[in-house]
Amino acid sequence: MRRTLILILLVSGLAGCSAGATRDDDVLYQVSTIAALLEGVYDGEVTVAALRSRGDVGLGTFGALDGEMVVLDGTVYQVTADGRARVAPDDLTTPFAAVTPFESDIAASLDGRIDLRELELALDLSLPSRNLIYAVKVTGEFAYVKVRSVPRQEKPYPKLAEVVKAQPVFEHRDVRGTLVGLRMPAYAKGINVPGYHFHFLTEDRTEGGHVLECILTRGRADIDTTFALEMALPRDKAFAGADLSGDRQGEVHAVEK
Amino acid sequence: MRRTLILILLVSGLAGCSAGATRDDDVLYQVSTIAALLEGVYDGEVTVAALRSRGDVGLGTFGALDGEMVVLDGTVYQVTADGRARVAPDDLTTPFAAVTPFESDIAASLDGRIDLRELELALDLSLPSRNLIYAVKVTGEFAYVKVRSVPRQEKPYPKLAEVVKAQPVFEHRDVRGTLVGLRMPAYAKGINVPGYHFHFLTEDRTEGGHVLECILTRGRADIDTTFALEMALPRDKAFAGADLSGDRQGEVHAVEK
After folding, report:
1. Contact A244 B131 (CB under 8 A)
2. Calpha distance B103→B223 (Å, rounded)
3. Residue A26 exposure: Cα atoms within 13 Å on the Cβ side
4. Percent of chain A scored above 90 by pLDDT?
5. Residue A168 has what pLDDT?
6. Residues 6 or more apart whose Cβ sits within 8 Å of residue A216
7. C-alpha distance from residue A221 to each of A139, A216, B230 (Å)
């Protein structure tokens, strides 16, 4: 009964959506593939400076899997294994990331205490299609945010599923901040995480990580509809030699959720 | 015994490969997704003229599924349901296609009577990795080529698996021509056909189609290694509303092979 009421409030909130024009050059620029990251291809080739030239909102990780990446308002943040965020130096590299020049095509205010799953359902209601690519920013007040980060790895790199077994987890309560995320269509599952994938940054931009759970109490969602994907494949031997065949949906779920 | 001998000859032929430099702007430009084509999203938005501006080699289909597309040396050919090829007018559209500015990074001479599966195995031996994207041209003499085309559809469009049940099939014997194809990595299976996918054009460029079988007797293969994919998603309602969830590998195999 409680859940039903919450969703009605959300739909009401979303009824105030404003749909803007979408630029023709609205591209999600992606480095490598989720399949390669799962296989332990952690050496980066694309620099933070190069990534920033392709977009101002997005997420990813860093060379040697040295933390979670949050790209917000043109700044690339590195959340290291201690859960602390810092501005990433321009010469750091990334083995996996996706950014886009963000513009808000759909805006919605979100009221009511909702968890991550309910937030995703509410956002889905505002989308024109499940077959397009979306970048998402949700800024507001959170009763709870549970995040993880990943520690820098040494070669030979273990697979991502091994790394996250010992992932450091951090809990924030009554915190203001922004969820930065992507929603990828189901057909893109071999190249990125299907569905929603959020990273978090506190309002003061000193802490964050990969979102495992959250409870949003009040906020604003901005969604950028994207009609193009540009994927740059790594030129290194680790990528060339990795076994990227097979279906990894169970593995993706295990490392992301 | 016979097959073993053929493969040895091929490896010997491939030992003469020359690897060229790959340009940084070497991108495979793709319109829509194989998932959408399977679901019957056949209305095109991208024109032949626009497609030619993004590459000179590739393949695809046309609006309303009006034939097979072969792009060779900068010309876009339309193979209609009668198996005849003509130069496609610039204002025709495509609902699914992929092209790249072709340059030969790997060249190999192919001797010995080999079928399509053996050709694919031979090409695989010359690739630096199974995780990259390749455009392929195989020009030579064929003892046999079996192709199909697809007839123009009327709305409401049937799914592709329905259309190909009645596909017109054409057989060529002792013919010179070119196989134009792509090899997509396994992780790209939701967005394009994984593995090899060839269309054929006769040397006089008057006939062709989607390749079902072939026997090559002598030829030359040129392979373009591509490190980037740019995928443009349709803006129309048919794409937005299609159910593109679920795994379609069985369906892809049924319509392509």
Report:
1. yes
2. 8
3. 20
4. 83
5. 95
6. A110, A113, A114, A115, A119, A138, A140, A141, A142, A143
7. 7, 11, 28
Q: How many Cβ atoms from other residues are within 10 Å of residue A126's Cβ?
A: 19
Return d(Cα A190, Cα A198) in angstroms, integer. 18
For chain B, domains (ranges, CATH) are 2-256 (3.30.1330.80)
> What pTM, to 2 d.p., does this model score?
0.91
Indicate the pairing of strand A27-31 with strand A228-232: parallel
pLDDT in tens, B121-147: 999 999 999 999 999 999 999 999 999
pLDDT by residue (tens digit) across B230-253?
Answer: 999 999 999 999 999 887 778 888
ipTM entry: 0.89
CB atoms within 10 A of CB B224: 24
Q: Do A131 and B239 lie within an 8 Å CB cutoff?
A: yes
Terminal C-alpha separation, chain B: 26
Cα B120 from chain centre: 13
A127 touches chain B (CB under 8 A): no
B182 — phi, psi (to 5°)? -125, 150
Instruction: Select the residue of A35, A129, A228 nearest B232 (Cβ to Cβ).
Output: A228
